[in-house]
Amino acid sequence: KAGVTQTPRYLIKTRGQQVTLSCSPISGHRSVSWYQQTPGQGLQFLFEYFSETQRNKGNFPGRFSGRQFSNSRSEMNVSTLELGDSALYLCASSFDGLSSGNTIYFGEGSWLTVV
Amino acid sequence: GNSVTQMEGPVTLSEEAFLTINCTYTATGYPSLFWYVQYPGEGLQLLLKATKADDKGSNKGFEATYRKETTSFHLEKGSVQVSDSAVYFCALSSGSARQLTFGSGTQLTVLP
Question: How distant is the Cα of B82 from the closest Cα of chain A, in angstroms?
């Protein structure tokens, strides 16, 4: 079956702009989570959605937001982009989340460069 | 809070050498432990996992044993191949936290 699909794969934005990234989870998976990967901070958890509700949130400013649709697809948005937002943004899906002992599967990520 | 400390890299080995990447953790409760691998330009792939003390996770010749007494989950492989060159991440999830806490990653390069 198809894996986790993220679009776009690469994008360049200017400081102050906003960006929306999209994630389609594996069919049947209802939990979607997002992570930011940077050389300096490593991999950090952004948030997790389940059945269109945010269940958990990491320690990121309010400029970072997300949502999940009824078909489990998810988007994340970053407003007022800063240079430090340049990163690989990874989406991961699972049937109903980590606490149930499920394995989560990652997409290939969206590379965001802010100039 | 939860944290994962991973062996600093980069690590360079010759093909067929023995690999160990150290990982220790601090966590509340009884965490599940994971090793993920990231090949150049790609996302993360689950390599193996263990969900309780003394469990051994294994996959593709890699192994790691959940050691509660030493809070460790070291990754080992008896004979590495050039194709194993990648970045390896140790991670944990604990209790009701629905998130992974990652180590800093270890870059492995295997030379022919």
Answer: 22
